[in-house]
Amino acid sequence: MSRFLFxxxxxxxxxxxxxxxxGELAARGHEVAWAGHxxxxxxxxxRQDPVFPVDTPEEKPRPAGLRGFAALKHLWEEGFVxxxxxxxxxxxxxxxxxxxxxxxxxxxxxxxxxxxxxxGLPFVTSMTTSAELLGAAGTxxxxxxxxxxxxxxxxxxxxxxxxxxxxxxxxxxxAFTTVDLVGPYPDPGGPVAFVGPALAERPDDPGFPWDWVDxxxxxxxxxxxxxxxxxxxxxxxxxxxxxxxxxxxxRLRAVVADPGGALGEEPFRDDHVLIARSVPQGALxxxxxxxVCHAGHNTVAEALWNGxxxxxxxxxxxxxxxxxxVTEAGxxxxxxxxxxxxxxxxxxxxxxxxxxxxxxxxxxxxDSFRAAGGAAAAASHVEKLAADA
Amino acid sequence: xxxxxxxxxxxxxxxxTVADMIREILGGEDLAELDIDMETRFGxxxxxxxxxxxxxxxxxxxxxxxxxxxxxxxxxMELDEIISLTVGRLxxxxxxxxxxAEES
Lengths: 389, 104
What we know:
A: Rossmann fold, seven-stranded parallel beta sheet, B: mainly alpha, 5 helices, 57% helix
């Protein structure tokens, strides 16, 4: 039996797929431990794995208007680099105390890769979103800039002699998606295993008013979920999308996830729209006919898993790249987060709902996800590496 | 290859062409009111993503052929230059490329 250390950032969407793989390994009799944010891991892990706490920088909200390349620069300078430096001592302690055979490190916690590399510990990259795989297409100096930041970090906390890109393990990168969605990609320098999404079992939401959903099976259900948007632009987009549904009163209804309370402090419902702070996304997607979302990787994966076509309005980070994958695969239509209005969101909804090719493409990708093996396939890959180590 | 009309390389002609391409890429929505001038920034003002830059590169190539090499133009640019890139800087590059092609 082997010992696996999972190194994760303080991000739910990154921890959940790792937890699914860890659970699979534990079920096969291996020992699993975590290096990450203790509070968040305590809430998300269903088993009593040992958790080695790491420091994480205090969260500073990014300026809401920051997008595109400016957001990319900010993400590295104010996000990934300080995160790696804060996590480094905790990752070091976890490796010394737990003696793992293999580390499974999140792609965005560079400390995991660099401390493993300087310790001579084999590691696998856990890539929970596929944007990095596509690289900085057409902008080589941007990629060079990222590599310089990684090189500086490596001098401080890694093995300064190493030369590969620490975002991709030379042994293996686990990609929680499939080539059917990603499309062609440049060689990242190490092998990639496409295992499909490892969707977390979500706890039931006993308070959710399913009677509202069940009351009207004739009108098609739209799920509107943009993550936590609390900016003015986010509130504007959400209300335009709601109006797009209201403009189709005989055909559509919408459940709106509004965790930030952008549309109001109180939950709201009438005959057409139900707005709640939290919604049981997975269960709703089993009944939804379309999703309007920001193209966060997990929401997209969950929608496609259920064969639901999408209207994507990417905001920043990996979202534009994921949105492009969705449109290139034919499973959705893109609208502009900053400019779309009720007419354009409505037209996009009509397109994905009325033309069956979108749902067919979504189902095809969903089939590829199920065939890829998910957490069990991921566990088999890392198990084999540990046996070889 | 067709001979370039002299007016094609005029700054305002190029600006109008490039602005139309950008509106096409932002596409699908009513963009008639969207002002695009020499000072307009691709990032702050238009919120163009890297994937949109790829689309713009394709539009430029379709329109100007190999006389304008947008890929080379962007490939030379540092991250901070891309962040602050204006439509005017691209227009100037296109104008210079077209004139160079005329002279060669």
